[in-house]
Amino acid sequence: MKIKHLLLMMCVAMVLVVTACGDGGGTPAANNNEETTAPDAGLARPMPGEVDGDLTEISVALIAHSPDSILDDQSFNQGAWDGITRFGAAHGLVEGDTMRFFQPHSADDSARLDLIEEAIDTGANVLVLPGFHFQSSLYDAQDLFPEATFILLDASPQSPDGVVRVESNVAAIHYAEEEAGFLAGYAAVMEGYRNLGFMGGIAVPAVVRFGHGFIQGADFAAYSLGLEEGEVNIEFMYLGAFAPNPEFQTTAASWYELMGVEVIFVAAGGAGSMIMAAAEAAGTSVIGVDVDQSGLSDTIITSAVKGLDVSVYDMLTDVMNNRFNGGQELRFNAAINGVGLPMHNSRFTTFTQAQYDEIFNRLAGGEITVIDSLYMTDISTNLVTVNEH
Asked: Can you list the alpha helix ranges (DSSP code H) found in the chain?
């Protein structure tokens, strides 16, 4: 796959960007063109301060999308819950009372809508909904429960026929997955890997952007290192599911042991455990996703992290301060430290903190813009060969 290189400069300004203070929109400068140390996975962002006046009393509910969606999932639920509990610790919320986790009895929109109603009936006035599974149920809930505030992560309220509508009681938060993927791909090649893999779960926009950013980051690093065309290869596929399946482990094992893949970036939720198991058996490596997954396996060299906890903390603070920025689709990107790599827990031996700081600052400062298209044909590479499965 050879298209134009470094036309990574395709603007993504069609999406609104949320500021750390959440009181006006716009894109804040990440580093004012100064050389600074890049924040570690977006977790170093300053938290919004309180404002004068009456504060809203908050009771928060985190809603799971299915019966097997656990709280400690090392992914979306955990990231969102971390933001809730950090906010709760700062403002006196009590787990089991004003901070609660709800699981539906079945994995369908009606069950999710019933659970939203149950959470509100038990006193929740702010509901955090992690993931694209909630786009349809929230499309209805935002009208049915106008007094409730909804924080939707990684999706927008959408009708079954594809109509997107975000009411004033909803903040639809998106993340620049293509930038997180870019950083992961860049780091992998700079670390010395030449045969890479990407395994996504279902080809939903967030997963697609992770993969497309990974390709661009690997290509950028290959160009920076002066590598030859085709010296870096990426095997690329979608598994078709987020749940663990032994077949996924078999596929990953064949990539590692028969095709010579050295590291796989897996953006597939619970299915990632299958790829980690294959890597452990083969003595190879994995790149995690969404949150810092280094504790799941010694094979995890780094993770492409979204600031899930940061964005939830920020939105709860805005609700408390009566300045909730609802009715919009908001975007957390590198410019506001909304994505990154957890360098403090990464297992790199060659790629350094200084190298990470340098590429992060270029990305955050707008010198590098990663194409966020959902179409592979729009992704520019010059040196990397991508083999789609």
From this structure: 76-91, 109-121, 135-144, 177-191, 205-225, 246-257, 272-282, 308-320, 353-364
